[in-house]
Every structure is written in structure tokens, then in C-alpha cells.
């Protein structure tokens, strides 16, 4: 399977099920605006002046699969996906949900795509905030980053959300490499409103998630597996060397080979932090083999 076919194929996470895609636009930018019109970020209450019920904030973003996301939308209104929804009929998700739905629709309409986990430098000056975007393949074979979430005019960002510069959104491996080479401060990578969530250890978590996503395993942002590290002091020489290897990869084939390493590959079960516990407690989630296995 070549790159075009690999990223055109839906994964168990992105598969939109029986969605009628006939009325969908084919233009990536129009699809990004469509996604923006059916999802509200669960943290946008103040920005958009719309209160989001607490149950939706806690529960919607636990939807792992696009089929679940679409089911929730159908339960809140019978509007077609191409019609802009009032806020109270939208799915209340995270940046990962904007990115995954856009990825699913791009694939469904003939554009190879994937989601990327990394850090955005366009939310808070001087800080690289934990974030997910969509990456799609252009006809010339190059890749372009697009951030459907910030296409809303309420986001006064200084980037083009339809063509996000690589130095303003760093995929996790690039963030790791920049910090290890001394070009960036690990303390400026994490969750800006939570002072305890930053540093190399946090970048490491996103390196795992991004590598999985590139290999078709598009997990929730709070899923973890393997050896869990919670501080830079806990990073071992083996940890550093393994992350250095992932960050040094330059091709999709290299990332694919790395994913075969049992230390990096998503197992059949992950531990997922639960929103209702304030992300303090984990629950075990069993993933079907067809979900945790990489694409061929």
C-alpha cells in the first residue's frame, strides 16, 4: 500500500460508518469550516459566550470514534452535517475531535489525511500549548497542516488556520528534538493553564500519541500505555534514546518501522484518564485488535 492509499483508508477511529458523503464538499478548507460548524470546544464557553452543560464537557470528549461523534450529533438534531448548527446542538469536544472529524471527511471525499499531536505556539505568547491538528496530502505529495478549531473568528490567531506554519505548530517529535538540541525550553511545552503539566516528560507523552496517530491508531489525548513518566527526573537514558530515535525519523517508512517496537506500539489495552475524576484516575480500556493494529 503506497502513502496515498494508506492515508486515504479510514481507520476504526475515523470511519464515519453509514454517513452519506455525497453532499460533502471536496475542498479541504470548506470541510474544515463544516467541522467548525458542528463542534464546539468544551472550553469555549467564555470565548463564545455560550454555556456548555457540564455533562457534555465531561462525556462528549470521551467518544473515541467518529461513529460515536456522529451519533451524538444526530441525537441533538436531525440537521444534515453540511448545515451549521446552533451551539446547543453541537458535539462538545476537544482539539482532537475537530482534527479527527476533519480527517475522516477528507478521507471520505478523496484526500489522504491524518491527525497530528504536538504543540501550538499561537494561543499563548511564548508558550507551546498541547494541541492536535489535521494534516492532509497535497497533489504534489507534500503535507499541509490545518487547524479547524481556530477557523472561528473568535480566535484572533496570527496564523492561517488553513495552512499552519511548521514553526508555529510543532509535531511532538519536532518539539522533542528542538528541546534536546537546546533550541527550545521544555518548560514552555505543555498545558498553559496547568503549571504542573510541562517539560520533556510531557512532550514524551505526545510523541507516543503522535507516532500512534501517524500509524492509524488515533487515541484520546489522555490515553497512556507502557511505562508512565510524570516528571523529567523520571526520564531514563533509555527513555531519552528511544524518543531521540522517534524524533530523528524523517520519513513515513521510518515512523512505520519504529512503531513495530513493542515499547512504542499501542497494545490491546490502554489506561485512560477519566474526566469525571478530574483526570486523576485511570480506567482500563480494551481495544479490539483491528483498532490497535497499524494499517498495512
Order of helices and strands: HHEHHHEHEEEEHEHEHHEEH
What would the average pLDDT be, to the nearest integer?
94
| Helix content percent band | 25-40%
- Low-pLDDT runs: none
Structural class: alpha+beta
Biggest pleated sheet: 5 strands, mixed
Q: What is the terminal separation in angstroms?
A: 7 Å
Number of domain modules: 1
Number of strands: 10
Tell me, briefly, the overall form: globular
The total of helices stands at: 11
Radius of gyration, in angstroms, nearest whole number: 18 Å
- Strand fraction equals 15-25%
Describe the structure concisely.
This is Transglutaminase-like domain-containing protein. The chain has 296 residues and is of the alpha+beta class. It has helices at residues 3-8, 28-36, 45-48, 54-59, 66-76, 95-108, 172-180, 200-214, 237-248, 252-259, 289-292, and strands at residues 39-41, 91-93, 113-120, 128-137, 143-146, 169-171, 189-190, 223-224, 269-273, 282-286.
Amino acid at each position: 500500500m503506497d502513502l496515498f492509499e494508506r492515508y486515504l483508508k479510514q481507520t476504526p477511529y475515523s470511519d464515519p460508518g453509514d454517513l452519506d458523503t455525497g453532499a460533502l464538499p471536496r475542498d479541504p478548507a470548506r470541510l474544515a469550516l463544516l467541522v467548525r460548524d458542528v463542534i464546539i470546544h468544551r472550553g469555549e464557553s467564555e470565548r463564545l459566550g455560550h454555556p456548555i452543560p457540564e455533562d457534555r464537557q465531561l462525556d462528549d470528549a470521551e467518544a473515541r470514534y467518529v461513529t460515536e461523534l456522529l451519533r451524538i450529533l444526530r441525537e441533538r438534531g436531525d440537521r444534515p452535517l453540511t448545515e451549521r448548527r446552533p451551539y446547543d446542538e453541537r458535539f462538545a469536544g476537544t482539539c482532537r475531535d475537530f482534527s479527527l472529524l476533519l480527517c475522516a471527511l477528507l478521507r471520505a471525499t478523496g484526500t489522504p489525511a491524518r491527525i497530528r499531536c504536538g504543540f501550538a505556539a499561537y494561543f499563548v505568547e511564548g508558550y507551546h500549548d498541547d494541541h492536535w491538528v489535521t494534516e492532509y496530502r497535497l497533489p504534489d505529495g507534500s503535507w499541509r497542516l490545518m487547524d479547524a478549531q481556530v477557523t472561528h473568528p473568535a480566535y484572533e490567531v496570527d496564523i492561517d488556520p488553513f495552512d499552519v506554519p511548521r514553526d508555529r505548530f510543532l509535531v511532538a517529535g519536532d518539539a522533542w528534538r528542538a528541546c534536546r538540541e537546546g533550541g527550545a525550553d521544555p518548560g514552555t511545552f505543555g498545558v498553559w493553564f496547568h503549571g504542573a503539566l510541562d517539560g520533556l516528560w510531557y512532550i514524551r507523552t505526545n510523541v507516543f500519541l503522535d507516532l500512534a496517530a501517524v500509524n492509524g491508531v488515533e487515541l484520546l489525548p489522555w490515553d497512556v500505555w507502557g511505562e508512565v513518566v510524570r516528571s523529567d527526573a523520571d526520564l531514563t537514558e533509555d527513555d531519552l534514546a528511544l524518543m531521540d530515535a522517534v524524533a530523528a525519523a524523517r520519513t513515513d517508512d521510518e515512523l512505520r518501522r519504529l512503531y513495530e517496537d513493542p515499547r512504542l506500539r499501542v497494545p490491546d489495552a490502554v489506561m485512560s484518564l477519566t474526566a469525571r475524576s478530574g483526570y486523576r484516575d485511570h480506567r482500563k480500556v480494551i481495544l479490539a485488535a483491528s483498532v490497535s493494529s497499524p494499517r498495512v
